[in-house]
Amino acid sequence: MSWSLAVLAATALLQTIVFVASRSVALLADLIHNGGDALTAIPLGIAFLLRSERGERRAGYAVVVAIFASATVAGIQAIDRLIHPQRLNYLVPLVLAGIFGFAGNELAARVRLRAGTRLHSPALVADGQHARVDGVVSLGVVIAAAAVAAGLPRADPILGLAITALILRITLQAWRTIRAGNID
Ligand SMILES: [Zn+2]
User: I need a labelling partner for 162 at 20 to 30 A (CA). Which of 27, 30, 148, 182 fits?
Assistant: First the structure.
């Protein structure tokens, strides 16, 4: 399990470097999404360490607020770029970043699905299915890069907005889960 986290961390680092170079808002949204997913694992860890349900809930709310704020930043950037389309730099590294995002998430999905089936853990299987969807989201970055290369600069912010909407949906679900009090 830990090496699948290492793969995701390496992917995030690579995607950050490519985002700084390319300024793709679709990649920014994908990065925030993956970062948000990683953050949602923290409240569980805190609850485990402190054996405190209240600590877990408080950490959970902090994470949801952090993800919501990041999603807002991504959304504002995407809308700004929609109004002022910009040519993207480094399209080939951008395509590679999307492919790496897909591969990293797909790898994590396979590890979790296999372990989940073996351990009869519905939570782990759900985690694996989530990672598989995230892989498809990362492919959105590849589509954005291809469309921009084909002369459609607005494809990048449009996909950025689509990914932002997905982050907001996940944020809302996380909020409801914490309020209901059963984070697992
Ligand atoms: Zn996700």
Answer: 182
